């Protein structure tokens, strides 16, 4: 796969639009999913994914073929998302709070015929607790967890992606997990 990507990158450097399209199609879902998980907004994630590809292809001359293209692409994407989060100072929204509509507040409803209302409520509380705990982590821990557990990258791929030593990746994953464990210890459904 790395060899195929290298050939496509070389063709892109020569202005081959077909190769550009192939790389975009190959990685668009992964890039969008990474953006979506980091910014938690589908529209912003689409914009950031598009910006990530634009930035990536504009700087292909700086790509080091020693590393996987996907790692380099994920590094650019995660850095864009971190910059976006810092600029926006994202506000957390509770699923329990109403959404303001044109005709006044609208309550959010979670429908699941297979679960009791108590199970739905407990599940929502747990998801919200986990999401809030992850969002409270420093950016470098949040990115590490997303790349490892949601994008399922190996430690080595994360190290290349973020341009940090392998030992730092392992330490940050450990510290991020400990931070989540400590924050969630108080949670009792």
Question: What are its keywords?
Answer:
189 residues, mainly alpha, Rna Polymerase Sigma Factor, Chain: A, Arc Repressor Mutant, subunit A, 3% strand, globular
Question: How many runs of DSSP E, i.e. beta strands?
Answer: 2
Uncertain runs = none
- General form: globular
Radius of gyration: 19 Å
Measured distance between first and last alpha carbons: 44 Å
CATH class of the largest domain: Mainly Alpha
Main beta sheet strand tally, sense and closure: 2 strands, antiparallel
Number of discrete helical segments: 8
Q: Indicate the percent of residues in helices.
A: 55-70%
Output the structural class: mainly alpha
Strand order of the largest sheet: 1-2
Return the average pLDDT rounded to an integer: 85
* CATH architecture annotation name of the largest domain: Orthogonal Bundle
CATH homologous superfamily annotation of the largest domain:
RNA polymerase sigma factor, region 2, helix turn helix motif
Number of domains: 2
Order of helices and strands: HHHHEEHHHH
Assess the beta-strand content as a share of residues. Answer: under 5%
- CATH fold assignment of the largest domain: Rna Polymerase Sigma Factor, Chain: A
Walk me through the structure.
The chain is mostly helical and 189 residues long. The chain has 2 domains: 2-88, Rna Polymerase Sigma Factor, Chain: A; 99-184, Winged helix-like DNA-binding domain superfamily/Winged helix DNA-binding domain (Arc Repressor Mutant, subunit A, Orthogonal Bundle). Helix content is 69%, strand content 3%. It is built from 8 helices and 2 strands; from the N terminus they run ααααββαααα. The protein has helices at residues 2-13, 17-39, 42-58, 69-88, 117-136, 139-150, 155-162, 166-184, and strands at residues 99-101, 104-106. A hairpin with a 2-residue loop joins β1 (99-101) and β2 (104-106). It starts with a helix and ends in a 5-residue tail after the last helix.
